Amino acid sequence: MNDIILHHYEFSTFSEKVRTALGLKGLAWRSVEIPGLPPRPLLSPELTGGYRRAPIMQIGADIYCDTNIILPTLERLHPVPSLYPNGSEGLARALAFAWERQMWIPSISVLTHYIGEHIPPEFLKDRKESYLGIDISKEAMAPRFDQDVQAVRAQLAWLRQALSGRRFLFGDAPGAADLACWQTIYLLRKNCPPEVDALLGLAPLTGWYDRIVALGHGSPTPMTSEEAFAVARDARPAPVTHLDADGDPGGLRAGCPVRITPDDNARVPVAGTLVAAGDQEIVIHRRDAQAGDLHLHFPRIGFVVEAV
After folding, report:
1. I need a surface site. Which of 18, 34, 121, 166 has the fewest CB within 10 A?
2. 89 pairs with which residues across the strands?
3. What residues does each domain of the chain span?
4. Parallel, antiparallel, or unpaired for β 219-222 and 257-262?
5. Going by C-beta distance under 8 Å and a sequence separation of 6 or more, which residues neighbour residue 254?
6. Could you read off the pLDDT of 10-47 as tens digits, one per residue?
7. What is the rounded distance in angstroms from the CA atom of residue 188 to the CA atom of residue 185?
8. CATH code for the part of the protein at 5-81+220-307
9. Domain covering 85-213, topology
10. How many other C-beta atoms are found inside a 10 Å radius of the C-beta of residue 184?
């Protein structure tokens, strides 16, 4: 089996979610550090077909886009210890998607209230024009701050209740649901002054928070973008045996051209030929002039899939 390669950047909390999942599973992996902003030579568009969000997981010539397909893939390939303890996969996947959608912009609002003046202008420009589609500068976010604090506190209230008397959300073992909820809190506790704990009522969650930090990041070793690209170029995509080639719930068939686009932000379409699909995953084939044949894997949730 080819090495797990993670293309990520240090201050990406979605990258931290995957790094910590690798720690939970105790896995060795290759670490390719990418810029927080494009351009990202040899990654996009070469390996990803234009998809620009991070992190990206690469295994040989298979490219996994979005944490909602990266974590289930890690589970499929390395099932022990599980990211879905006590039969929690369905609930964990639903919770992760809902939590991250609801919490992301309000969490950014709290973040910019505290450190907005330190966010580089080029980052703000990219997030407004090419990524989120909204202005996340301190000045622009200020009018919604009070409402966003209320939104974050309301979400944290049920999280505190769910964790009362428990080490983790589904019992004594950590899992993907914990990582999804934790990563937005990590964004704030890592970057904001300590008073953010009082503002949001985080004190009852700090034991749980610290237990997840203690999972670590597994065993990463550095890798260059050039080395990762060479791995993809010299490999062939793995056969897709876990999905039905004609099992798409929308009626798409293997071999048809499709376009896949995130439905929330960074809406850059990726075009390819359908390899296989199910109700939770879609795999397309792309041939890049330099990298050769690639399989790109996406979750169905959060993406628009269209025949072209």
Report:
1. 121
2. none
3. 5-81+220-307, 85-213
4. unpaired
5. 245, 246, 274, 275, 276
6. 999 999 999 999 999 999 999 999 999 999 999 999 99
7. 5
8. 3.40.30.110
9. Glutathione S-transferase Yfyf (Class Pi); Chain A, domain 2 (1.20.1050)
10. 25
